[in-house]
Structure formats: structure tokens, C-alpha cells
Structure to design on (792 residues):
């Protein structure tokens, strides 16, 4: 990620240290992960110790300290999806792409994450790939959906 | 847009907006909330716009993309005003017919209407559909009529009139008294009286005070705050400004989860519009009162929804809770007096001011006034957001509004209050829903999630599910929560995997007591609720898991097997083709057999086996019969034998 982009995001909050989380969110959504260089730069610009940035970056779910795959799969594990069979959908996906939640496969094709609730309970179980929702999922349908991504 | 400097100017503006709107002009409203968006409302919107143009009706019909209508099960939803004709599950291909028939010819398109499942009768008007008819939509009702990106829509419905009333006719003490009198209790979980909280903050020493909207709705299965903030953001801003006036605060924050991008966007637009119109900023409506609002996005941590944790997060630090010997109303954000309420609470305030505390208090029960929005989800026919007066029975919510259990299954329990709540069994369905009754039953109101469970839901698994969630979300700062939840989770995982031991239930009860008593914040203190309430009402299920290694709901993977009954199997190949694990062997004329080694217990075969065969069986607590010998597996079909 180039330094100008980071400067832009930091400047939006006038270098205010209390905007740390907002700055990191901005960078995360732009770059999809936070590299060590990026964290060092944020630390310098906002005058926040790196240890505190690490604390924040590891505490919140939105941040990733490793690169993400080309396609991000989110499986909703909210209560409504859970009782409608989300664990089985997740099992099948793990078998199919060979990674567990929080991981990215070796050729950086898919990253798999579980989320607590996407708020589309009527469509449960829900799987989201790159922002597109796939509702009423079932173990037998997962393969069909993932085929469309490469 | 010039700034509005006085109540009179606002009324002038409102008149202007209304004079341009003909109440009899047809208007198509399309639900564009997150759930309908996921079911394709964006494509429907595009084809409506295109079709209106194509049929040359641009001048004769209005089109509005609104917030969530609530009936998410049947989205995308269209309501055509002024008649209130409601069409459900609309696809782009239905649009030309709607425009040519209903808008041009004033005819109803029968096939898109709601069909009453019991009488098979078609229902034309939104207000007559049982899902809506049995609700009392005070706070949520405007959602379906407003384009959330248009402040004029809000003003046309009388928006910001409560703010005018407060700033021009009431002292801050009077506002506070009115809210106290209404006995409005916080809708975010705790149910603490909002007026008392405001009063404490108002009297706290210090010049600078903060008011905060908590939109960090983390309870899985609850999404009413998102729908309000997405669908009617100005009502939240208006409530917040009124609260700020009563408390004497000039700075506000909206803490909203970054997982809700549409809510972040819409509330951002609303703030900008309110600033332009002069409902926010300096000298609001010429009253001399100043108030500004900032949006802070939450980065995804359930515990940060707790008030003291949220305030720490606002300071840009890790959102962990702290002990509250000193209330946040005295020392909150940056140690200054801070008042936090959730979205729904703030959105209720303008109603109380406009219509009075007495009007508000006529709804609800002795201890819980007004209405509450619930998200009715799970194994219920009509999933959606429902707003009902406090004191309605669970049975009315689930059966009258929710339309009963999906697929004709048997009701088992309803879970309320999210991970801090509990499960309520069938015997208590006639319980009146309010803050106190739910607590008495071992659950809680929480933010209003209501998850309906049927006979296929395993209660041990549900307890395990919530503890798994909580152990993941516990910040780890205090030992009772961090360790207590983890140990309880271990025991529950063992039980659901068939490794439960005699005495486990008692151990769970003991751990629950310590965790509940000794944890720092509400996350840990209420964590035992899912465990204790399931033990209290469904002890037999725990015992079946422990003693018989049997899951009565056929849910716990380690305790069940799938088996194809050779007498019933017609070798139709359906399950064999669909099995994602390729664990079914057989062929067209050969009875299918499940390879138990390969089977991942996903249940696909059970679901796809045609009901007229019903050959796939679930087994639990008993061994799988050995497969029939190869030679007995050949099926000779009657048609071919002849």
C-alpha cells in the first residue's frame, strides 16, 4: 500500500490519536490487511506506541495482520443460521477448500471467516462471498456457489 | 438549502414540502433494507425505474426506496400507496405487470399477494396481513414510508417537530420530567430507566458532557437497531438531540458497527443534511442551543457494546469494560459525564415528546411501558421485525404474528436476550413479555432477539453455541469470565460429543454460580443464563446425552448416524448424487448404502430423500444396522419385470 493513501486516511482525522481505530479501519478496507510497515507508519504519524496499536489490531475482528485471499467467504454463524444448519454448511466448505475459519489458502484464492450475524435471518443459513449474499444455503449447494470464483 | 433559523421557518418549509406532495398520487415504495437487498431488491429497483420510464409514467407515479418494512421472510416487498396494496417476493420480471396493471389500470395482480395459509384467502392490503395487523408499530411504522436518504420525507411526516417543541416551549427540566414520567426503559438490554440515567448525567459535575447512541448491535439474531438506523436515521438524531438538550450536552457520538455499511452510510448522510438544515450545529433553530454529532465505527468486538467498554473504544483504545463503581454518567468518555442509550431508545424519545408521557404509558405493563421491537427469527414461518406492546404473550408473537412453526414441526423453545438470555419452553408460552417477566423465567429482554426453536434443535448444542460465542468474545480481563466460560464450554462440548460424565450437570451449575457472581461486566455475569435455563427446562436432554449417549433432536454430529432403510430405498440416485462427501454407494438398480466412514453427517440425504419413500433414517443412541449383503441389493422394478 502506498504511503500517500495512508497519509490521506490519517489526514482525514487530523492525526488525532483517538481516531486510531478509525484510521486502521480505513486502511484495512483499502488494503485488506495491515502489514508491519503500515502499523509502524501509523504509530509514527499518530504518535501512538506500536504496542498499543498491536493491542488494538489483534483485539478487533475487523483487522487482519496477514494478507487475505482474492475472495473472502463469510459464513454467518448467528443463532438463526446456526439452528437452520450453518455448522453443516461450514463443515462442507472446510472440506471443499481445505482451510479453517481465519485462514487463507496457499494460492491466495479464498479466505474463510465466520461472522456472528449478518442480520439476514430470513435467508439463513447465509454465506457471503465478496459482499454478495447467498441465502438458504445447504451442504449440497456450497460447491455450486464456489465454482463461480477463481 | 438555506439554514432554518426558527420554528416558524421550519413550518414554512414543511408546508412547502407538503404542498408539492399529492396524497392521492400513486407511489411505489420498495423495501431496500439489508435483508431485501440480499434477496435482490436492487435489481427490482432498477427495473421499476426503467419500466416507469418505458411506459411513460414518470410524471404520474412516485417511486421511493425505503428502509426495512419488517416482513423480511417475503422480501423484496412493494407497497403501492395510497391504497396500501402489498406485493411480496418481487422479482424484476414481475415489474412490467405491476406497472401496467396496478398503476395504469388500477387492477390488483392476484398472484403477488399474500395468501393466508389457513384460509387460502388472498390479502390485498398491507395492514390486513396478519403479520402486520397484530402489531403496534409506533417506532418502526414510518420506516416503510421514508426514503432514509431524504430529510424531506422525514419532515413530511412531521419530523423534527418534537425538537421544535422542546427547544421553543420546554425547559430542559421539563423534558427530563416528561421522559421520567413515561418510564421509558433502555431498549439495549439492561432495561434501566432512561430518565433516571439522564438525570444522573445532568447533575454530574463538569462542563463537557457526552451523549452516545449505541448501535453496536452484537446479539446474533437481532437486527432492529440496524433497521432503524438504516431506515429512519433522522428519528435517532432527533431523539439524541432532545436528550442532549435535557442533559446539557453539546457533543454526541454514534457508535455503529462497521459490519453495517448501509447504516454507516445513511446516518452519515442524515447528519450532513441535519447540519445543512440547522437541526445540528450552532444555535439550533435559533434557540441558542448547540449540538454536534460524530460517527465512530466499531471494529467488531461484542464486548465493546457494553457501555464502559464502548466509551473506552471511543477514545481510540481497546474496548474492554472497566468496573463501574463510579457510573459512566459521572465518569465516562475521557472521564467526563456520558450518557449512553441504544438506537431504539433514542428513536422512541421524539414520540414521547410529541404525544406525551401519558400517551406512551398507556401501552405496555405496569413495569415496562411502550412497545418493543423484536426480531422474530429461527424456525418460524414469518421471519421479520415485529413491534408489539409490552405485555403481549409469547404465543401471540410466535403464532399470530409469526404464523407458527415452519414445516408443521413441533415448537420446542424460544430463546430471548441473545447470548445473555435464556430459553423459554412451551409451558411458558402464555407468559406476558416484559423486562421483569422474562428475567423471572431465567432469560432476559436483551436487545429483543427472539429465536424460535423446534423439535430439531438440540438444547445442549444451543448452550454450547452461546458459550462458544461468549468464550470467543470474552475480553479476558477478569478471571471468572475468562476461565469460567472456558471450563463450562469444555464440559458442554464433551456432553455433546458423547463424552459427558455423571456429575457434569452439577459442575455446570456450580461454575455458573461463580461466573455469574464474580465477573466484572454483564457479559460474564449473564453468561450462565443459556446454560442454567436449558438445564432448568430441558434437563432430560442433558441426561439423554450423558447417560444414553443420545441426542434426542438428532443434531449433535458425534451422536447420530444416517442410515438408508433397505426396505424403503427405491435406488432413485437422488441422495447419491447430492451427497457432498460422496459417501453413498449404489447405482440405478441397486439399493443405496451410506459408507459410515466417509459420512460427514451433513444431513443432505435425509433432506433430499423424497417423502414418499422416506428411506433415510436418523439414528442416535443405537448402533447402525449392518448393510444388506451385495446380492440382496438388486432392485427388480415392476415395470421392467413385466
Amino acid at each position: 500500500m502506498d504511503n500517500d493513501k495512508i497519509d490521506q486516511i490519517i489526514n482525514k482525522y487530523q492525526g488525532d490519536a483517538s481516531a486510531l481505530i478509525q484510521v486502521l479501519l480505513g486502511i484495512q478496507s483499502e488494503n485488506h490487511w495491515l502489514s508491519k510497515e503500515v502499523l509502524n507508519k501509523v504509530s509514527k504519524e499518530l504518535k501512538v506506541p506500536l504496542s498499543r496499536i498491536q493491542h488494538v489490531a489483534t483485539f478487533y475482528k475487523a483487522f487482519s495482520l496477514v494478507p487475505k485471499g482474492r475472495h473472502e467467504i463469510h459464513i454467518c454463524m448467528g443463532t438463526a443460521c446456526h439452528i437452520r444448519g450453518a455448522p453443516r454448511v461450514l463443515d462442507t466448505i472446510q472440506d471443499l477448500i481445505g482451510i479453517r475459519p481465519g485462514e487463507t489458502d496457499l494460492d491466495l484464492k479464498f479466505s474463510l471467516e465466520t461472522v456472528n450475524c449478518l442480520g439476514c435471518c430470513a435467508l439463513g443459513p447465509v454465506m457471503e462471498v465478496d459482499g454478495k449474499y447467498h441465502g438458504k444455503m445447504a451442504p449440497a449447494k456450497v460447491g455450486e456457489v464456489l465454482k463461480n470464483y477463481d | 438549502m438555506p439554514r432554518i433559523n426558527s420554528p416558524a421557518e421550519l413550518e414554512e418549509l414543511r408546508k412547502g414540502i407538503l404542498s408539492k406532495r399529492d396524497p392521492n398520487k400513486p407511489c411505489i415504495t420498495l423495501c431496500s433494507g439489508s435483508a431485501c437487498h440480499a434477496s435482490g431488491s436492487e435489481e427490482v429497483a432498477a427495473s421499476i425505474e426503467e419500466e416507469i420510464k418505458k411506459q411513460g409514467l414518470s410524471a404520474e407515479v412516485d417511486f421511493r426506496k425505503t428502509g426495512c418494512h419488517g416482513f423480511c421472510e417475503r422480501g423484496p416487498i412493494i407497497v403501492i400507496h395510497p391504497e396500501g396494496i402489498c406485493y411480496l417476493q418481487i422479482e424484476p420480471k414481475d415489474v412490467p405487470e405491476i406497472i401496467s396493471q396496478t398503476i395504469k389500470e388500477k387492477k390488483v395482480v392476484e398472484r403477488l399477494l399474500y395468501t393466508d395459509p389457513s384460509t387460502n384467502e388472498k390479502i390485498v392490503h398491507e395492514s390486513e396481513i396478519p403479520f402486520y395487523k397484530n402489531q403496534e408499530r409506533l417506532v418502526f411504522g414510518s420506516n416503510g414510508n421514508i426514503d432514509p436518504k431524504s430529510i424531506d420525507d422525514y419532515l413530511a411526516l412531521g419530523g423534527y417537530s418534537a425538537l421544535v417543541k422542546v427547544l421553543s416551549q420546554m425547559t430542559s427540566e421539563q423534558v427530563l420530567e416528561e421522559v421520567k414520567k413515561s418510564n421509558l426503559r433502555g431498549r439495549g438490554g439492561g432495561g434501566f430507566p432512561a430518565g433516571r440515567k439522564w438525570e444522573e448525567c445532568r447533575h454530574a459535575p463538569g462542563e463537557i458532557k457526552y451523549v452516545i447512541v449505541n448501535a453496536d448491535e452484537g446479539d446474533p439474531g437481532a437486527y432492529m437497531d440496524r433497521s432503524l438506523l438504516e431506515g429512519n436515521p433522522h428519528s435517532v438524531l432527533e431523539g439524541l438531540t432532545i436528550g442532549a438538550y435535557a442533559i446539557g450536552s453539546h457533543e454526541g457520538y454514534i457508535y455503529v458497527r462497521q459490519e453495517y455499511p448501509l447504516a454507516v452510510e445513511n446516518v452519515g448522510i442524515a447528519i450532513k443534511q441535519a447540519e445543512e438544515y440547522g437541526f445540528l450545529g450552532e444555535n439550533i433553530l435559533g434557540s441558542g442551543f448547540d449540538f454536534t454529532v460524530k460517527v465512530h465505527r466499531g471494529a467488531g468486538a461484542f464486548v465493546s457494546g457494553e457501555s464502559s467498554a464502548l466509551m473506552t473504544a471511543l477514545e481510540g483504545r481497546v474496548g474492554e469494560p472497566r468496573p463501574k463503581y463510579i457510573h459512566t454518567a459521572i465518569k465516562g468518555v475521557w472521564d467526563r459525564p456520558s450518557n449512553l442509550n441504544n438506537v431504539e431508545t433514542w428513536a422512541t424519545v421524539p414520540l414521547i415528546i410529541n404525544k406525551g408521557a401519558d400517551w406512551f404509558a398507556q401501552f405496555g405493563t405496569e413495569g415496562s411501558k411502550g412497545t418493543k421491537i423484536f426480531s422474530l427469527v429461527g424456525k418460524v414461518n414469518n421471519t421479520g421485525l415485529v413491534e408489539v406492546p409490552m405485555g403481549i404473550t409469547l404465543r401471540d408473537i410466535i403464532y399470530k404474528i409469526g404464523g407458527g412453526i415452519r414445516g408443521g414441526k413441533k415448537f420446542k423453545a424460544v430463546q430471548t436476550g441473545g447470548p445473555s438470555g435464556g430459553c423459554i419452553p412451551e409451558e411458558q408460552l402464555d407468559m406476558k413479555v416484559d423486562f421483569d417477566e422474562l428475567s423471572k423465567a431465567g432469560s432476559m429482554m436483551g436487545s429483543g432477539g427472539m429465536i424460535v426453536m423446534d423439535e430439531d434443535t438440540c438444547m445442549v448444542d444451543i448452550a454450547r453455541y452461546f458459550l462458544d460465542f461468549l468464550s470467543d468474545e470474552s475480553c479476558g480481563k477478569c478471571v471468572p469470565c475468562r476461565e469460567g466460560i472456558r471450563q463450562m464450554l469444555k464440559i458442554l462440548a464433551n456432553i455433546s460429543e458423547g463424552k459427558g460424565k455423571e456429575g457434569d450437570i452439577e459442575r455446570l451449575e456450580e461454575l455458573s454460580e461463580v461466573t455469574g457472581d464474580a465477573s466484572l461486566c454483564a457479559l460474564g455475569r449473564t453468561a450462565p443464563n443459556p446454560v442454567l435455563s436449558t438445564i432448568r427446562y430441558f434437563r432430560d436432554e442433558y441426561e439423554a446425552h450423558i447417560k444414553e449417549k443420545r441426542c434426542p433432536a438428532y443434531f449433535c454430529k458425534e451422536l447420530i448416524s444416517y442410515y438408508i432403510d433397505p426396505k424403503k430405498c427405491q435406488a432413485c440416485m437422488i441422495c447419491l448424487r447430492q451427497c457432498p462427501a460422496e459417501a453413498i454407494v449404489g447405482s440405478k438398480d441397486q439399493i443405496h448404502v451410506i459408507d459410515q466412514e466417509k459420512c460427514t453427517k451433513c444431513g443432505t440425504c435425509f433432506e433430499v430423500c423424497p417423502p414418499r419413500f422416506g428411506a433415510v433414517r436418523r439414528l442416535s443412541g443405537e448402533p447402525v444396522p449392518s448393510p444388506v449383503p451385495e446380492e440382496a441389493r438388486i432392485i427388480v422394478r415392476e415395470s421392467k419385470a413385466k
In short: The two ends of chain A are 24 Å apart (CA to CA). Chain A touches chain B through 50 residues (CB under 8 Å).
